Structures are given as C-alpha cells and as structure tokens.
Recover the amino acids of this structure.
C-alpha cells in the first residue's frame, strides 16, 4: 500500500509558523514520544524498578530496536544493534575492520566525510601506534584510491554539506575486488532513502537516529556487521553487555553471539523509548515511496529557487540519483541569509564557507511547505535582507 | 543545615508494598523526572528543534551536569563531564593513563572489580598490542602489588558483591609513591557516601548515574580528570564534541580545553533531563548527613538480621568505615531466598555463588523500611520458605 504522507505529517509536533528544513540535523518531535517516554518512566522504571531489565524487556531492546532500524537500511534482521553514539560505533567498526586486515595499513576516507569520523580514525590510529595511515582524498577520487594498500574504507554515503551521494554498491564492489573492507556511515542515509546494505554486500555500517529517524536529540547510534563477518570480529570496546554471559560476571571477556558483541555498557532506556515512538511512524512508511516524494520535494525546491533567486548556485548534484535528501546552495553571504531565514521561521542551516543547506523530509513536509519556504527565501534574496543581518552580526562582534 | 531525609523520601515514586533495597543497582523514579523529561521534549525539542542545542543549553549540559556530580564526589568544579556509559569512560581513562606512563606495562586491578572494567581493560590491551598486562590480584593484596611496574591502578572503590570499601587516600598515595596513576571507579561510591577525589589526589575517576544517583535506567556515565593532568591527556576516543572547535568542522582533531576533551559524540538530551531531575534532589543533601544515616540504617539491618537469622553470615566488613552503602550476607540457598523475598515485595539482589546483597539509601529508606524488610527476611528464613522456591526453580529447569 502506498505510504500516506499527509497522515504521517499529522504524527509530528510542528511548531506554528515554522518551516523546518533541518530534519537532516535533528528530526522533529513525534506526537506520541513524550507520552511513550512518560509511560516507560512511570509504569516501567517507576513500578518495576530493577526488574524492568527483564520484565519490561529493556535488556533485549538494543537488538529489538536494531531490527526496526535494520528494515530501513536493508540489513539482515538480527544484525543491527542500537546504542552509544555514532562516533563510538565508528570506532568499533574501524577497530574490528583493521584487525581483520592485519597486513594493511591504510584507512581510506574522503574530505566530504563528517569530521568526527576522521577524528575517531585519527584517535584509533594513534592508540594502535602500528603505522596506520588515514588517507583522505577528494570525494570524486575515492574510487581510484581504493587500492590493495587499503585495509578499510571509511565513507559517509551522503556528504553533510552538499548532499552528494556515493555509489555504495560500486565502491563496495571495488573495495572487495582489492581485498579491502568497507565501513559505511549512514548518518544522512538512514531514513533519507532506501539503503541496501545486503544487496551492496557492505561489511560494516554505522549511523545515528536523531536526524531523519527522529529519535530526539542525542538518540543512540547503531552498528551493522555483515553476518559473514560478525563471528570473526573482536570488539575493541569489550563491555559487559557484549559479553556472552553478562550476568555470569566472569573474570574474562568472551564475545557474545553475533551482533550482541557490539553492545558495550548500559544503554539509556529513556532515550530508547523516544526512539521507539519515532520508529512507530516509520512502520507506516515504504522506503520507495519516501524516496519518490523526497525527489519530488527537492526538485520542486531547486526549480523554484533557481527561477527566483539566480544569485544562488546549486551546490548539490543536479541528478537526484547523485543526491541524498538535502539540497545545498552556495552564496557568499550565505550565513547572513540563513540568519534572516531563521528569523522568518524558515530553518535550514549553514556550513562554512558559503553553503546553505536544506533537508527534505516527506514524513512531515509537503509541496506547500516547500513553496512557502521558497517564497521567504526569495523575499530575503530579492530584498537583499541579509545586508541588515550582516550589519547586526558585525555590530555584535565588534 | 541538616538534611531532611523524611522530606527527600517524599520526592520519590516508591511503589506501594515494595521495600526497595536495590538502589545500588537502579535508583527509583524521582517524582519530577517524567515531568521534567516531558517538558524538555515538548518545550525544548518540540518548539526549538535544532536551535535547542544553543537556546536550551543542551550543548553545555555535559559539563554543567558534570558540575552537579562534581560536588558529590569532591571534584574540582569544571573537571567532570557526563556522557556515554561507565564502560566507555573506563576505556577513556585507562587509554589516557597508559599513554602517560609509556615505559610501564601493568594495569593493576583486583578480583573484586566489576567485570566490565576488566573486560574493557582486556579489550584495550589487545588493541594496543604493546605487551601490556592486566594484573588482577585479591582485593586485600592490592596495596602490596602497587609496584613500580604498575602504569595505572584500575580499582572500583566499593566491591559490588560484598560492599567492601578500599581506602582511596592510602592506595592513591601508594600509587603516587611508585610513580603509578590511579583510575577510580565510583559506581558504588557516587551518592553512597562522601568521596574526596581532590583530597585523595586521585588522577582519574569514572562512574555511573543510575545507581545511587537515581538518574534512570542507562543514565549516562561520567569521567573526572585531575586538573594537573587534563591538558596532558590525549583522548583515545577523539569525537567531535571533544574537539577544540566542534563547529569549525576542521579536518584534523585538536583536543578541547580541559575536561571538554573527554566528550565524544552527541549525548542524549532526554536522558540528561531525567538525570537533572534526580540531581535536584541531591542539591538538598549534605553528604556527611547521608553517610551518617547510611551507617545507621545498615547497622540496624546487620544487627536485626544477625539476631533473627543466624544462618546468614555477614559477607560485608563489620566496620562501617570499611563498607560502602550496601550489606551482603552469605547463604547457601541465597538465590532461592532472594526469589522468595522479591515475591514478598522486598527487593535486593543475588550475586553468585551465595551472596544476597541489600543497598541502603537514606534518600528514600528509613528505619521502618529496614525493620519491615528484616521481618520478611526472618519469616522466609525461619519458615525455610526458600525450599518451595527451589522446588519451583528445579521444576522449571527440568
């Protein structure tokens, strides 16, 4: 059955007078989330106390919630676990992958990757102190740099600034052809379009749940390990909840079955309840429908902006197949324009040096929202309203 | 002003008919917590959306909440940061400490440590692959094993099974005398009694907030680094929120100022709101008063149990100075006794092979609770009610 997006829109709390084009940073509040969290706190924590770990199923949540995420990213059920943060999950995936390629020393990434991924890789390399190299190339050069020196690629599928999307299938195949492994960061993919981890043969994938998935600020990260690898991965962050028998309190670590081993410490059950409320909405969504609407919305935005605001230069790929679910424009005064937009209720964001970015999220945005946003943007651009903002910013700084 | 514990007790949701002696595993629900979380979700996340990171102060929370914890553990303000889980914080502290002692190879711990700490150390050692050794000795032998081979001690101050408390001041001094560093795990200390990190000269400390601090299931961990060290520590888990300028999105990592560098990824703001509600209660508490009441309650428990249930053998130190805020007893049929107790509304827990443990938390327990718990325990022991439970357990297994 076709997804009904006018119905899903009603399931979110969208503040009056706001056009929210920043769901790629932080998704909005699902209407049932606070109630679901309150219920968990009062009926489970409040009444069951410590017994909630078994009686309310808290202990099993990282895997059961992981299964709900797995469907959205084309992963095998039982092979995604939710917890910690995306940065921690990057570290886990990279550390495991490097050990699986002990004769290789290169982590290959690109300059379009989100900095935290590069930082975590840097930190790991310094700790290992074994001559590894983080090789960062331009995004368009990544394919040709996948050589047999590469132990693992660390690639964010969608560029957080431009929305440019890598070809996961092709790059994974290239990596496998030279014996390299892949870690895919799905921060701007999960909930943005259909991801097909199984079909692409991805080795590891990681992501967060507070952007397109709408789990709330700081909602947990997730990690996927391909079934063919998981029993051969050693968890570098070997916490007790990844142990084969956490409640045996054995003195030595023994990795748990399958993806369970990628659990570390005690996960936030409160955060998990909010994420579950968000995933209830996702249960109503077909990812192919979502992608179709996302392309319609972003194409409408590009066409309208280019017609009305010729000073803005498209920073995202024009071909929808080459984009995630955001659209970015270059403009010299982009920072001030974004401030002017935000003060008028259109929320996007700015990334240095000159990128204004706008996220398109069919779950709660429709054509009218996009056109209303364009109208305000046009007003700001045609009236050069950023001038006043820049004056204010300078006045504040000096 | 003397802490008013009959007032603090009213601030918790305590289920009717339950005597909760397991606050050392998971503290109960503060009455304002659900409301505080709802308010954060609806007024901050719901209304401010992405701008909440600045406008609602979410970005600064790990340090501002850290300051509230700092007071309870005798740490300098501005030197505790909240986030991730205790296991992750153990990893961070250990990794930093080992790098500060590059010529030494021993991590010294004891068999009374919580297994996750040992597991995290094991995992780190394997990753470093540099000949480190995790040396685990009996708790009573720890002092004499602090030699100049030791890079860092990894000690949980209070044994999770027996409640035995190490002398933090003495052991830290011993470590420093031989040039070793200390990582103190305060899982069963923070909120259990006065901790004096500054006075003891501790180097690193870590802990969780879901036990005595009552932050809720999976409430975040925390880490302390002594001011004299923090600028010299390299964060092994070098995530973007520990970067000197997270929003500059620079390609290379540069550690943030002071304790900020121990932040990693995006923290759960929802979990933090619940923890803040719990800390509101702690603001009314003087730690010296708490300790005094804790000793009164646990002494009353020991005396009553020993009088009425001679089959139970005290597993905790008899001297209150040598204990945390829990009391444990050995009994062959301890598991079945604990099941019988729980079915009668007295919640403690069991740790293999034969330990029944009971936590004493003056914030919401008084003499009447302790005596009522003792009465039920006496009933179970004198009536040998565990026999029936053991029969049921066996029947279920076969």
């Amino acid at each position: 059955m076709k997804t009904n997006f006018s119905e899903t829109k009603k399931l979110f709390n969208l503040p009056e007078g706001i056009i929210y084009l920043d769901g790629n940073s932080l998704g909005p509040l699902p209407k049932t989330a606070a109630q679901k969290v309150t219920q968990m706190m009062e009926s489970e924590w409040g009444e069951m106390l410590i017994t909630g770990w078994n009686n309310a199923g808290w202990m099993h949540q990282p895997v059961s919630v992981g299964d709900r995420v797995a469907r959205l990213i084309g992963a095998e059920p039982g092979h995604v676990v939710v917890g910690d943060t995306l940065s921690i999950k990057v570290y886990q995936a990279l550390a495991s992958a490097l050990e699986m390629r002990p004769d290789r020393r290169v982590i290959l990434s690109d300059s379009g990757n989100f900095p935290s991924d590069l930082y975590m890789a840097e930190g790991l390399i310094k700790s290992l102190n074994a001559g590894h190299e983080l090789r960062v190339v331009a995004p368009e050069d990544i394919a040709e740099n996948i050589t047999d020196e590469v132990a693992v690629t660390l690639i964010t599928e969608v560029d957080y600034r431009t929305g440019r999307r890598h070809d996961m299938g092709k790059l994974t195949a290239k990596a496998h052809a030279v014996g390299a492994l892949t870690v895919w960061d799905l921060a701007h993919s999960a909930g943005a379009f259909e991801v097909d981890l199984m079909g692409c043969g991805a080795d590891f994938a990681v992501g967060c749940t507070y952007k397109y998935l709408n789990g709330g600020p700081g909602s947990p990260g997730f990690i996927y390990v391909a079934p063919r690898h998981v029993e051969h991965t050693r968890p570098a962050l070997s916490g007790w909840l990844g142990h084969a028998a956490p409640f045996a309190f054995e003195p030595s670590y023994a990795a748990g079955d399958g993806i369970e081993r990628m659990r570390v410490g005690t996960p936030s059950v409160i955060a998990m309840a909010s994420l579950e409320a968000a995933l209830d909405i996702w249960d109503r969504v077909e990812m192919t429908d979502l992608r179709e609407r996302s392309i319609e919305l972003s194409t409408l935005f590009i066409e309208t902006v280019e017609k009305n605001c010729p000073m803005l230069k498209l920073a995202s790929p024009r071909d929808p197949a080459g984009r995630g679910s955001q659209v970015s424009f270059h403009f010299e005064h982009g920072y001030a324009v974004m401030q002017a937009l935000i003060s008028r209720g259109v929320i996007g964001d700015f990334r240095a040096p000159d990128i204004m970015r706008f996220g398109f999220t069919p779950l709660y945005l429709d054509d009218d929202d996009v056109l209303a946003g364009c109208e305000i943007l046009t007003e700001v651009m045609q009236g050069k309203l950023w001038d006043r903002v820049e004056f204010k910013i300078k006045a504040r700084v000096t």
Remarks:
- Chain B has 14 helices and 15 strands.
- The mean pLDDT of chain B is 96.
- Residues 31 and 189 of chain B are 23 Å apart (CA to CA).
